[in-house]
Design goal:
This protein is an all-alpha fold. It contains 18 helices and no strands. The protein is globular and about 55 Å long.
Length: about 425
């Protein structure tokens, strides 16, 4: 008996999934462009490393604080319209940033007030993310059948990483060539096209109707589900601490301006480097998905991620710094693929929003908290020691996880799926 040949483009053969992937790609370009611009503008206005870290913390606080409620709302709502509404809200935030960062506005209200307004917008962006993330996760599962999930996860992740490659590069280049106002205007155009693309997807049925439960009881079910599933909990926890300590992204404006001396355009390429590595890896995984020894591969990938963060920290050569970030991104792509596959395959349809919210609390927000950790340690001990410290802590987390979590060491994706 011969085994059917695996189709690496299986998910892309669904029209609605193609529309979803295009929207995800454009949203990611827009969000990462905005992140580059805000980071560079804040550093230009204040020259403060600590404030660079506070950018992430300001977004993470509301994202964590209402994440479970956002997941609850996503589960009991029609997800296409919900996602559309919050992408439109992102557009409004970009328009406000366009106004607040205009030279004439800065001159009239002062730099300190502009910085305060930017942080105000970042806070509301965190709120929007708490709702849009679970809605997007749930919608993705409703537009392809279950047997196509692993293919859809790979291509959705590749779309995100592709946007994350182009976004920082395009943002840095446009910021240097056109200025901040025109760059924000282009971001608004990208988000507009994303909304049009989402609307090509038909409305989907609501799969969760609360019955005799309080909002709190319904929302907390996602957290209980994750903590009762040892494999999911171990994978999420590993990523949480790795991202928390190994995220050097917040300090890239410092490296671009003060260490590597490459300016705004160089910053764009540095921000894109990790995503370049990730998308290359995700495309490889589309053809050669991880099945056997998935847990050991995951641990090795996260350990390697920490090593390349250390090498990036000590580098003063632009091309080698980019290489280290590319390699760290490729290894992170393995972690993303394994973790998302486990969560998508293991989560019941009526809990996807709430489980996605918990994942966001652990992983998505740990990016921002990690940026704060980087900014705070850089302010305390210096930029290079802070990045080296973060990479060393990531490696230490992997070593500890190897010994205390046998469920990860023994994890086999094929066996895990069949057992669920």
């Amino acid at each position: 008996m011969t085994t059917p040949k695996r189709d690496p483009y299986q998910a892309l053969r669904y029209k609605e999934f193609r529309a979803y992937v295009l929207a995800r790609f454009l949203i990611t370009i827009a969000v990462t462009m905005q992140a580059v611009i805000i980071g560079y503008e804040i550093y230009e206005l204040t020259n403060s490393k600590l404030l660079l870290g506070l950018i992430g913390l300001t977004e993470a606080i509301p994202a964590i604080g209402i994440a479970m409620y956002g997941g609850y709302v996503a589960d009991k709502s029609e997800k296409r319209n919900m996602l559309t509404a919050f992408v439109a809200l992102y557009m409004l935030m970009c328009v406000l940033l366009l106004v607040f960062t205009h030279t004439s506005f800065i001159s009239s209200v002062g730099k300190d007030n502009v910085v305060l307004l930017i942080f105000f917008i970042i806070f509301f962006t965190g709120i929007a993310r708490s709702f849009s993330g679970p809605a997007s996760f749930g919608l993705a599962a409703q537009i392809v059948p279950r047997e196509v999930y692993q293919s859809s996860i790979t291509w959705a992740s590749a779309a995100w990483q592709s946007g994350a490659v182009l976004g920082p590069a395009v943002g840095g280049i446009l910021l240097g060539k056109l200025g901040i106002t025109y760059t924000f205007a282009i971001i608004v155009v990208f988000l507009s096209v994303a909304v049009i693309s989402i609307l090509q997807i038909e409305k989907k049925p609501i799969q969760f109707v609360p019955k005799g439960e309080t909002v709190y009881q319904s929302a907390i079910q996602g957290l209980k589900f994750v903590f009762e599933n040892k494999v999911i909990l171990s994978c999420i926890s590993l990523d949480l601490f790795a991202v928390l300590f190994g995220g050097a992204v917040a300090l890239l404006p410092v490296y671009a301006k003060d260490i590597l001396h490459v300016g705004a355009e160089g910053l764009g390429w540095l921000r894109a480097s990790q995503a370049v590595g990730a998308i290359i890896m995700l495309l490889i995984l589309a053809y050669y998905p991880i099945r056997k020894h998935a847990g050991l591969i995951l641990l090795a990938a996260v350990f390697g991620f920490g090593v390349f963060i250390i090498l990036f920290g000590i580098s003063t050569i632009f091309w080698f710094s980019m290489f280290c970030l590319i390699m760290s991104g490729a290894l992170d792509g393995i972690s993303v693929s394994v973790r998302h596959t486990i969560i998508q395959m293991s989560t019941p349809d009526n809990m996807r929003g709430r489980v996605s919210a918990v994942n966001s609390m652990f992983i998505g927000s740990s990016n921002e908290i990690g940026e704060f950790e980087s900014g705070a340690t850089a302010a305390a001990m210096g930029t290079i020691p802070a990045v080296i410290f973060g990479g060393c802590m990531t490696c230490l987390v992997v070593i500890v996880t190897y010994f205390i979590s046998p469920s990860i060491r023994k994890m086999e994706l094929k066996e895990h799926h069949s057992s669920e």
